[in-house]
Amino acid sequence: MAAMVVSCAERGLKSHLLLRGEQPEILIGYNLISMLHGNAIFVPRSLYAKREEMLAKHADLVAGGSGSVVWLSDILEASLTTQISGKLNCEPLDVYKYAESLKRVVIVNEGGGDTVGLLGVICLVQYSSQNHVFGKEQAFKIVVDGGTGTTTIGLGLRAVCLG
Description:
Blueprint: H1 2-10, E1 16-20, H2 29-37, E2 39-43, H3 45-48, H4 51-63, E3 69-71, H5 72-81, H6 95-101, E4 105-107, H7 115-128, H8 150-162
Parallel strand pairs: 1-2, 3-4
């Protein structure tokens, strides 16, 4: 979430974040970053329980009567199915191209439990393996806070692919 909101802000894109739970008295960490770089709204857990419905309703409000909405996972799926080679492309999606040709508001669902999260982790390992970061020869340990297991799977898949 924090990476997404900062990335959007750097590109001049407005982000709306729906954060589960109550706003803490003192903002720190991810909550602070979210509030500084995006339009963050804390959503009661009872409403957040129906995540996809909540996201779609909020996106419709943001889009207004003249806009339209698409899920990032749909854009990514369309992008992946058009790739000819078997090589995973970790280049950033041309969001502006898709926003113009498809929709104006893009929904990014939470967590690494979907395609977007899995590919993000795979690309993180590829990035980390560059010589100017960690390289491929230097051993290092990664501590994973894994809820769904997708983060661990993504890390492992890319590590195996990179040898």
